[in-house]
Design a protein that fits this description.
Strand order of the largest sheet of chain A: 6-7-8-3-9-10
Structural class of chain B: mainly alpha
Order of helices and strands of chain A: EEEHEEEHHHEHEHEEH
Helix content of chain A: 25-40%
Shape of chain B: elongated
CATH topology of the largest domain in chain A: Rossmann fold
CATH topology of chain B: MetI-like fold
CATH architecture of the largest domain in chain A: 3-Layer(aba) Sandwich
Number of helices of chain B: 10
Structural class of chain A: alpha/beta
Largest interface: A-B, 27 and 21 residues
Number of strands of chain A: 10
CATH architecture of chain B: Orthogonal Bundle
Helix content of chain B: over 70%
Radius of gyration of chain A: 20 Å
Shape of chain A: globular
Oligomer: heterodimer
Strand content of chain A: 15-25%
């Protein structure tokens, strides 16, 4: 069966052709209703994958399809939630959430009902008349979630939406997102560098490596829902993912440090996979 | 307020110790103002100037904002007009007068040209910078919500840039006001600038200073009451003035 979202042989190169690719040979098929976490160190291209699906970027080679149709640009059927809420500061919470419906030409009466439904779903109905700057970071992300859901897209793309929040707020929002996902059964692609978050939320964790960015492992998660952040199974799974990613993360650190102190003769540090004194 | 009163006292003392004819005191100026308000000369001049300003400034505002948005968002406009705008910005507005007079003659049009050219470019540059500093994330988010083309401009880009545009509009207003008075000095224009020139011709220093007081008062009132309030309100609503 045709997957809902498919990436085939996708590469992405920034800048001049021939410069180092950000993403190579990514093949990914995501079925309808899945909750997929893209997890990896910074620079692995996980956000790029998300932007490609969103239609905010174009692949250099390969193709990205949704329902078999190539993605040609952003669509209200694939909404995106960013690390910052990206709410419009000049609109109230209610008008912000109404915005996608206005763009879609939904009649006024129906808009009001839909906005109310989704603001209540994220428990923000009481703050509907507030301006975004009057809200806490967690409340802003709730508003952004309502705005992403209100147009009833089939695909929800989330780019580290809770990364800037404190641990307690994040934990609460994980619960909310899981509950909303169980209610609405959207297809969710969730980008994170936080392995615990990936283990807590995903049906499937796609691990990515860096230099060049690529998929290193695709892990199905069969833990029961609803989950808790402190569930033994979640913690164990997070540890497994962490071990896998560690190799990649060390690679990033090594390369970042090398730039500062590789001696003129070269040769000494820097080779990927170098054994840090293991033979002593 | 107290400081202002002190200034008036210093002014009164200074004028008494010098030539009252060349340096009239606040009382002389107040009398001149009263007489010229009663005769209707000043009210007519103020209305004439403000009406003129309203027209020229409106043109500036609309054209300036449109040009600024185009410079910021349309590549070929930036490539062609960008340097021109920066270059012309270096010309003080009065320097347009000779050209305007030769092209349009001693008339309404020449003054309006000076007013528009004096204020348009500052509004343009402020708008361009306001649009350029919109967080790209807002525009990306808007695109994912189906905002494209004209609706993206009207519903997202313009409101996002509004605080900067209002600051530019405020600046443009003072430039327009100055350009207007400079233009009105030149001929029988019926405006405040001409009354100033009339005072000079009649050697009526009290009238000259009276008109200057009126200019200061109008400038302060429009800047603080009109634009100050507007700017503060926009900044508050946009969450830019959080303490």
């Amino acid at each position: 069966m045709e997957p809902l979202i498919a990436l085939r042989g996708v590469t992405k190169t920034w800048g001049a052709p021939g410069s180092a690719p950000a993403l190579v040979g990514v093949d990914l098929a995501i079925g309808a209703g899945q909750f997929v976490c893209l997890c990896g160190p910074s620079g692995c291209g996980k956000t790029t994958v998300l932007n490609l699906i969103a239609g905010l970027e174009r692949p250099t080679t390969g193709e990205v399809t949704v329902r078999g149709q190539p993605v040609r640009g952003p669509s209200p059927e694939r909404t995106v939630m960013f690390q910052e809420s990206a709410l419009f500061p000049w609109l109230t919470v209610q008008r912000n959430v109404e915005f996608p419906l206005e763009m879609a030409g939904v009649p006024r009466a129906e808009r009001a009902a839909r906005v109310e439904k989704y603001l209540k779903m994220v428990h923000l109905w009481r703050s509907r008349d507030a301006q975004p700057h009057e809200l806490s970071g967690g409340m802003r992300q709730r508003a952004a979630m309502a705005r992403a859901l209100v147009g009833e897209p089939s695909i929800l793309l989330m780019d580290e939406p809770f990364a800037a929040l404190d641990a307690q707020t994040r934990d609460v929002l994980h619960g909310e997102l899981e509950r909303i996902w169980l209610e609405t059964r959207k297809t969710v692609v969730f980008v994170t560098h936080n392995v615990r978050e990936a283990a807590r939320l995903g049906d499937r964790v796609v691990m990515m490596g860096t230099r060049p960015g690529r998929v290193t492992r695709d892990l199905a998660v069969t833990l029961a829902r609803p989950r808790e952040a402190n569930d033994q199974d979640v913690t164990t799974l997070a540890a497994v993912i962490e071990r896998e990613l560690k190799i990649e993360i060390e690679k990033v650190i090594r390369e970042e440090l090398d730039d500062a102190w590789t001696p003129a003769g070269g040769g000494l540090p820097g080779a990927a996979g170098r054994d840090l004194g293991g033979g002593i | 307020m107290g400081f202002l009163a002190l200034l008036v006292v210093i002014w009164a003392v200074a004028s008494r110790s010098g030539d009252r004819f060349l340096f009239p005191g606040p009382d002389d100026v107040a009398l001149a103002l009263r007489d010229n308000v009663r005769s209707g000369l000043l009210p007519r001049a103020v209305l004439k100037s403000l009406a003129r300003l309203a027209i020229g400034y409106s043109v500036s505002l609309v054209a300036g904002v449109a040009l600024g948005v185009a410079l910021a968002r349309v590549r070929w406009v930036k490539d062609t007009l960008g340097a021109v705008v920066l270059g012309l910005q270096a010309i003080p507005s009065v320097c347009w007068l000779p050209l305007a007079l030769l092209w349009f003659g001693l008339g309404e049009m020449a003054i309006q040209v000076v007013v528009v050219l004096g204020s348009l470019l500052s509004i343009t540059l402020a708008t361009e910078s306001a649009v350029n500093t919109i967080p790209p994330l807002l525009i990306r988010a808007a695109r994912t919500m189906g905002a494209t083309g004209g609706r993206l401009w009207l519903r997202v880009i313009l409101p996002a840039a509004l605080p900067g545009i209002v600051s530019g509009a405020r600046l443009g207003w003072t430039f327009a006001w100055r350009s207007l008075l400079a233009g009105e000095l030149l001929f029988i224009s019926g405006g405040l600038g001409q009354v100033l020139e009339l005072g000079r011709e009649l050697h009526d220093m009290a009238l000259v200073m009276g008109v200057m007081v009126v200019i200061v008062a109008l400038g302060l009132a429009s800047d603080h009451l009109l634009f100050g309030q507007l700017e503060a309100r926009v900044r508050r609503a946009w969450g830019l003035d959080r303490v």
